[in-house]
Amino acid sequence: MLRTVSLALITLTVSAAWGEELPRYDVEAMCRAAPTLQGDAAGATDRNCVRDEMQARTQLGPLWAGFDAQRRDACVRVARIGGPPSYVALLTCLQM
Q1: What does the pLDDT read at residue 44?
Q2: Contact 50, 28 (CB under 8 A)
Q3: CA angle, 72 as apex, 90 and 80 as ends, to 5°?
Q4: pLDDT number for residue 77
Q5: pTM strictly above 0.70
Q6: Domain-by-domain residue ranges, the chain?
Q7: How far apart, in whole angstroms, are the C-alpha atoms of residue 49 and residue 35?
Q8: Fewest C-beta atoms under 10 Å: which of 39, 66, 84, 91?
């Protein structure tokens, strides 16, 4: 019983520590997977997507620790809905 409780506490501590860091997403892979707008060159769409994602990540950096841990966790899950995770989706969720 004590061993189970100890393991649970270690798991919670590791989870809480991980939650303090902004998640790392593969922006380029996410942007390549995004649909291209009709009539738009794939390269321009990818560049704009990467730019938007990096701007969102930059905005999130100084704000991340100020958000409640439960809200961060919920928004991390939301940012993964429908495909690769997105900093734009994460930032939007946290701002709502």
Answers
A1: 74
A2: yes
A3: 45
A4: 96
A5: yes
A6: 2-95
A7: 11
A8: 39
Contacts of residue 45, Cβ cutoff 8 Å, sequence gap at least 6: 31, 34, 36, 37
Q: What is the DSSP string of 12-29?
A: HHHHHHHHTSPP---HHH
Structure-block tokens of residue 38 = 């009709």
Q: Say how far apart CA 80 and CA 77 lie, in whole Å.
A: 5
Distance CA 67, CA 12 (A): 18
What stretches of 20-95 show up as alpha helix (H) in DSSP? 27-33, 42-63, 69-79, 87-95
The CA-based angle 85-88-89, given to 5 degrees, is 60
| 54: its two tokens | 């990096």
Instruction: Read off the amino acid at residue 70.
Output: Q
- Collapsing DSSP to helix, strand or coil, 82 comes out as coil
